[in-house]
């Protein structure tokens, strides 16, 4: 008789299902599938990043029992580091721009992280949240997770997200679509999938005002074409996780399109998502429209809408930002 083995939450990151997005699949004639990363213990795709960074640091002797993890984050990686860190015996210090949703900041403190809210500044500024995290690590002997340039981030998606998608689609996936926050999800997953089948398209979804569309389309990061309210995505530089990645197509997705998608999914399909998921799905739909029917296109449902109720699901806030939650899905995706 075999003995059943049970584990804590750090052993239950990943293994998320693929969810068929019914109306968008019908509109495009493709299978539009979302990987339900909001089902991870910390509620987002960044739990994978957190677990990968922590376990690799343990292997290298950079994290030891009772140690402290410090990180600059828009929120979700910090949540993952805090939960998984506590499950493995570490404390977390989180540096977060004050522009991020109040729900994420409150949640981080509730979970037990020491949270420092700082002014939002570009990476070129020494006051940028990532640089503050690095300095705190150096000054205190803490472990700096460095999610943007720590390639353990990319590796964990190569080891888990890519193989899961390949198995779940029985190798029939035609394209993988993801926005870039750090680049780990897009790079690690697509590298694995292309090793299985080089014909699988790697697709970048980019909000306006970010530089990845410019980088993958024109080979530079110079184009400044607007702004977005999306949190946690919209990279302005080529991180170590992105270096060397070949992308077949990149799309700009505007906030209204993404908002219309997530409101449709909530009202008609019972999915409660953040705006980054809408950006991802918008690019998946664009790619389906360009490639024609019969494809199987997989994207990431990054996190739930719980952390954005004061913004994305607040009609007064949306009106102040010229966004319409009643704009129809059909008009939004053309």
UniProtKB/TrEMBL annotation:
One of its GO terms (molecular function) is cysteine synthase activity. Keywords: Amino-acid biosynthesis, Pyridoxal phosphate, Transferase, Transit peptide. The keyword Nucleotide-binding does not apply. The keyword Transit peptide applies. Its cofactor is pyridoxal 5'-phosphate. Residues 10-303 form the Tryptophan synthase beta chain-like PALP domain. NCBIfam families: PRK10717.1. This is Cysteine synthase A. It comes from Prosthecobacter vanneervenii.
């Amino acid at each position: 008789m075999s003995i059943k083995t049970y584990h804590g939450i750090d052993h239950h990151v990943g293994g998320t299902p693929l969810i068929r997005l019914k109306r968008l699949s019908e509109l495009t004639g493709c299978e539009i599938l979302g990987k339900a990363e909001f089902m991870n213990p910390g509620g987002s795709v960044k739990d994978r990043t957190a677990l990968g960074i922590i376990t690799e640091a343990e292997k290298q002797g950079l994290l030891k029992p009772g140690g402290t993890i410090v990180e600059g984050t828009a929120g979700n990686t910090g949540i993952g580091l805090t939960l998984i860190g506590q499950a493995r015996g570490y404390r977390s210090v989180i540096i977060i721009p004050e522009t991020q949703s109040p729900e994420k900041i409150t949640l981080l403190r509730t979970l037990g992280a020491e949270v420092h809210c700082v002014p939002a500044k570009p990476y070129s500024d020494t006051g940028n949240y990532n640089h503050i995290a690095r300095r705190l690590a150096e000054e205190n002997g803490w472990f700096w997770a460095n999610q943007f340039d720590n390639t353990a981030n990319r590796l964990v998606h190569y080891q888990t997200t890519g193989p899961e998608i390949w198995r779940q689609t029985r190798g029939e996936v035609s394209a993988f679509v993801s926005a870039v926050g750090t680049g780990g999800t897009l790079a690690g997953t697509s590298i694995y999938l292309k090793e299985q089948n080089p014909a699988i398209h790697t697709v970048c979804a980019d909000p306006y005002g970010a530089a990845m569309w410019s980088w993958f389309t024109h080979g530079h990061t110079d184009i400044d074409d607007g702004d977005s309210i999306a949190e946690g995505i919209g990279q302005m530089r080529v991180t170590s996780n992105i270096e060397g990645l070949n992308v077949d197509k990149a799309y700009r997705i505007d906030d209204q399109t993404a908002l219309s998608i997530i409101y449709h999914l909530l009202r008609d399909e019972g999915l409660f998502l953040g705006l980054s998921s809408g950006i991802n799905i918008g690019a998946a739909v664009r790619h389906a429209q360009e490639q024609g029917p019969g494809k199987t296109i997989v994207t990431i449902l990054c996190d739930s809408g719980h952390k954005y109720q004061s913004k994305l699901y607040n009609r007064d806030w949306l009106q102040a930002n010229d966004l319409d939650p009643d704009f129809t899905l059909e008009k939004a995706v053309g």
